[in-house]
Amino acid sequence: MNSMVNTTNHDDALEAARLAALSSFNILDTPAEEAFDRITRMASELFDTPLAMISLIDASRQWFKSKVGPVSSETPRSISFCNHTIQGDTVMVVPDALRDPRFASSPLVNDDPRIRFYAGAPLRLASGLRLGAMCICDTRPRELSEREQRRLAVIAQIVVDEMELRVKGAQLEEARATAVAAARVKSDFVANVSHELRTPLTSIIGFAGILKATGELGARERHYVERIYDSSQSLLALINDVLDFSRLESGRLKLERSDVDLKDFVEGLVRQFRVLATEKGLKLEHVIEPDVPQMWFLEKQATKQILTNLVANAIKFTEDGHVRLEIALVNGRLTFKVCDSGIGISEDQLERVFERFERGDSSTARKYSGTGLGLAISKQLADQMGATLTVSSVVGSGTTFTLSVPEVPRSELGS
Questions:
Q1: CA torsion sign, 215 to 220 to 224 to 226?
Q2: Closest CA to 305 of 336, 340, 274
């Protein structure tokens, strides 16, 4: 008696585990999917049967995830062939259902679809739990060789692999959505904090500028004020870089095109760096080739931000010589080159120059302050514009950054 009870309890536990595993796949009553339909079509053609099904067995029914042939989408579990298949690990073959006492009186045999031949391979998980079967059926009696049975078992394993892949895909999508949501929260936090920091910092810079302009400070006090002013400017640049990078990552930095007068645009850009270059004793110049058109349909703000960063870097890393901005038309693309005679960039650093927080080797990082975000931001902006940003350099001789902007068809005006 105890043995019978233990056996019943064991069977109940296995069935509960099996149903839980089936439920975890979230596949019951889902729409048709081509990945599974391809498998049933392949099985039908391979074994030359009019019926092929991927059957899943829940507590009370047999439900077909995919089927070939005129069969309903589900049947009661009690009359299904596949309910017998999941009781074992091997392929179950019924050569003639009318001669098999288990199925001779079944409505599946005596009524449509009038199954006479059945073969099913269990859909077996690595845990040993069997969720259903890959089955083929015919309306006439027939046999299935051992070789064909092995093939059917392989197809059943393909079904299991596809089911597991489906779950992993859903998990990856959920993880991606979670990551996107987390990134959005992070971006919102960075944007809010950056805004709150910029407001008082702008006031500090303003008051420090006023103090610098007065003639009432002693040499020591003026030195302190200049330190405050310069440090505040550096901190503001850092905050702006972090904010821009956050906006780019979240996709919230929108670019707008407009007609830009290139001569005015370039002269205004160079003008803002004239004093800084003069203070370092550098020659700052620009050249616009004669074939460059006066107007260009351009993402003005993004282009200005990229070139501002490139020119600022060129001045920062050049102690003697020149910084030059060249504008030319190359193969129908508007090309900006920022060339300097500065310290240059080594070959191994060139490979990482557009990575976030990349600041060269330790000696360079110590000597030249910066966030390491400027070039990463510039590269992302260029990509978003459909432009290319490249670099070439020789250590000790200088560096050239090239921004190549494609011509935008006028049909895209306002897009």
A1: positive
A2: 336
Number of H helices, E strands in the chain: 12, 13
**Structure tokens belonging to residue 285:** 């110049």
> Which DSSP symbol is given to 355?
S
Q: Which residues contact 175 (CB under 8 A, 6 or more apart)?
A: none
Nearest to 297 by CA among 334, 269, 330: 334
User: Cα(134)–Cα(157) distance, rounded to whole angstroms?
Assistant: 9
Tokens of 391: 């670099």
* One-character DSSP codes across 168-226: HHHHHHHHHHHHHHHHHHHHHHHHHHHHHHHHHHHHHHHHHHHHHH-S---HHHHHHHH
Residue-wise pLDDT for 245-296, tens only, equals 666 665 556 678 888 999 999 998 888 888 888 888 999 999 999 999 999 8
Residue 183 confidence class, pLDDT cut points 50, 70, 90:
low
Classify strands 283-288 and 295-298 as parallel, antiparallel or unpaired: unpaired
User: Which of residues 195 and 344 earns the better pLDDT score?
Assistant: 344
Say how far apart CA 361 and CA 350 lie, in whole Å: 11
The pLDDT of residue 355 is 79
Estimate the share of the chain in helix, then strand, then coil, as percent rounded to the nearest 5: 50, 20, 30
Alpha helices in 60-145 (DSSP H): 82-85, 107-110
Q: How far is CA 207 from CA 107, 197, 210, 225, 236, in A?
A: 92, 16, 5, 10, 15
According to the model, what pLDDT value does residue 138 have? 97
Neighbours of 94 (CB within 10 A): 23
Give the tens place of pLDDT for each residue, 311-335.
Answer: 988 998 899 999 999 999 999 899 9
Q: Pick the residue with more confidence: 333 or 366?
A: 333
Q: What is the 3-state secondary structure (H, E, C) of 73-93?
A: CEEEHHHCCHHHHCCCCCCEE
User: How far apart (Å, rounded) are the C-alpha atoms in residues 320 and 312?
Assistant: 15
The string of DSSP codes covering 252-284 is ------EEEEHHHHHHHHHHTTHHHHHHTT-EE
